[in-house]
Please model this.
Amino acid sequence: QVQLVESGGGLVQAGGSLRLSCAASGIPFNLGAMGWFRQPPGNQRELVASITRGNAQNYADSVKGRFTISRDNANKMIYLQMNNLKPEDTAVYYCNTPARNFVWGQGTQVTVSS
Model:
């Protein structure tokens, strides 16, 4: 059974940084494209960054230049380095394939204070 476990969230002041991690287990094949999503309070879940197995990256305009997605294929880990955080980045962050193929994990809360 595929399991996604996100970690690394927390409370940070505006302008600060956080590094999120996603551990994918129970996958008997190589991970393909993966992404980080976020769901602000009262809003829909949105894709903010994605990365192919070959490390091609895409970002939502709202995070471009501030967030960096990376991966460790051998260990099936996905990371999101978030710099210059803003209050509008406050959300629960999740990882999944861009097509949302896997069951969602519990997510990790990121709260940015002004």
